[in-house]
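Appendix B, record 7
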Amino acid sequence: MATRRVCVVRMNDAGLYEKALAQHGLADAFEVHALKQDETIPDDVASRAEVFVGHAPGPYLQKMPRLRWIQANTAGIDPWLRNPNLRADVVLTNARGSHRIPVPENILGALFHLTKPYMQIALDQRESRWVRRVSATLAGSTLGILGLGAIGQELARKASALEMRVIGTKRTPAPLPHVEKVYAQEETDAVLAQSDFVVVLLPVTAATENFVNAQRLRAMKPTAWLINFARGALIVDDDLISAVKAKTIAGAVLDVFRQEPLPPSHPFWTTENILVLPHIGGGWPHRGAAVAEIFAQNAQRFLKGEPLDTAVDREREY
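C-alpha cells (predicted):
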C-alpha cells in the first residue's frame, strides 16, 4: 500500500474536506488531521505534514519542513505572501472560483440598494407612513469594473442583462463578453471618468495597495458611487472620507476594510453616504463545500504530480 500523505486541515468545517476527499475516492490516500481554527498543530504532525489547508498559520510553517502544498481557503492570499516562513518551493493554491456567484449577487444587491428606496420604505412602514418614492433605473447607466477576473466577468454578464453599459480594466486587456471596452490598468482614469458606479475587484499587491486615492477619486463623476468588495487596503480611508464629505463623489458601499471587524471608532461608521457592510460578499451557505471541492480536485493532481489548479503566481501576487 502506498504511503499516505499527511494533510493538516485547520478549519472549523474540516469534515467537509474529508468528505470531499472520500467522494473523489481519495480517503485512503491521505492521513488527515482535522483541527479547529484556534487549535495548535501538534509538533509531531507538523513535522510530517506535506499538505496544509486553512488560514495562514503564523509561525507553524517553520515547523513543517516536509510541506509541499498549501490550499488557502480564500481567494485573497496576501496574508500568506506576507508570511516570512512561506518557502519558495511550496505550491500555494487559493479558492479562486468559490466566490464567482455570491460576490456578483451581493454587488447587485448594493446597486439595487443605491437605486431603489426599499430601505426608506421599510423605515416608513415602522411608523405606518404611506410615502410614494421613485426608483432610479440601472438600465442605461455605466458600470466600471476595476479587475475583470472571474468575479468581474460574472458581474459584467449579470449587469448587461440589466441593460447596464459595462466597461472595466484588466491587467492584460482583451475583448470580453458583455464588456463594451476593456482598458489596461494604466487607463483606469478613463473608466472612472465614464462610470456611474465603480466596483473595485482588484487583488492586493505592491502595485495596487492604496490604489483608490484622492487623485483617482477626483477622476470619478461627482454623482458616482464607489463599491469595494475586494480588499480594504486598496482604498486610502482618509481620502475616501474626504471625497464623500466634499461631494467629490456621491458615496461608497464598502464590504471590506483594513481592520476587521471595523473598529467602532472608525469614521466610516458615521460618514453620511458611506455604507458599511460586515464582509458579506463571498459568504454563502455552501461556500465551505465549494472550497473543499477545489481542494479535492487539486488533491488528485497532487497525487499524480500534475500542476495544481488555482495556483498562485508569486510574482503577480495572486
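Remarks on this record: The domain at 102-276 is CATH 3.40.50.720 (Rossmann fold). The mean pLDDT is 96.
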